[in-house]
User: Fold this.
Amino acid sequence: MSVAIALNHSSYDLVVQQLIPGYASLARLAVALLAASPLAAASGSEVLVAGCGTGAELLEARSQRPDWQLTAIDPAAEMLAVARQRLGEAGLDSPQIAGGGITWCQSTVEELDAQAAFDGALSVLVLQSLADDGAKLAFLTALARSLRPGGQLVLVDLMRSERSPLQAQVEQAWLGFQRASGLSGAAEALDALSQGLHPIGLARLTALVNAAGFSDPALVFKALDVEGFLLQRQA
Ligand SMILES: C[S@@+](CC[C@H](N)C(=O)[O-])C[C@H]1O[C@@H](n2cnc3c(N)ncnc32)[C@H](O)[C@@H]1O
Assistant:
């Protein structure tokens, strides 16, 4: 089984909840964190959802902050189409909303032509899929460039954890979580996940985000190896 099969656009919403402990709360927490940031707290703030996938963060943003002017970007046409349909059917992509309709871009963050336009950004489970061969740095640099100075980014990703004598038990627990959540082929899915993704440790993440123009990452969430960080673009 490949990650592309496990996480294709039609099965994504179910499978991601079976794979990742706490996924159901991630978007809610990410939006609440950004909403408390100095710039994005203001009414009508411009917020970028980078790698919006099927729209989890967008739905939550519309629920908590209907005044935000949202830009949603993702290079995958199928994911973007699912997100657009979901938000549209829920009546959440409309000029009647305080923040207006959502701006949709089929694009990577790196291709986005945004110069310090956004008050805040969300990036949930995206950086992990980029290799640490310059691609992660390019993604983070583009995010920093897209934010106004002082703008904050909520970054959630699969991290490479410190090995401990209890690591085998942790990995068994993750598989147990996935089986109990009804994921068939949990071991294969986890194996494919670890092959298809490029998790890094905290020291490397800190070096990359600093090079990109962000402050040190503040840890705000951790469930097994999935960690969430709050970052601020340096002035
Ligand atoms: C695992 S999904 C996460 C989707 C959503 N954020 C969530 O948490 O459900 C990762 C998404 O990031 C998108 N993506 C990958 N590389 C990207 C890039 N360089 N810029 C923006 N989005 C990217 C993929 O197309 C995919 O839809």
Summary: The CA atoms of residues 60 and 100 lie 16 Å apart. Strands lie at 46-50, 69-73, 103-105, 118-124, 147-158, 218-223, 226-232.
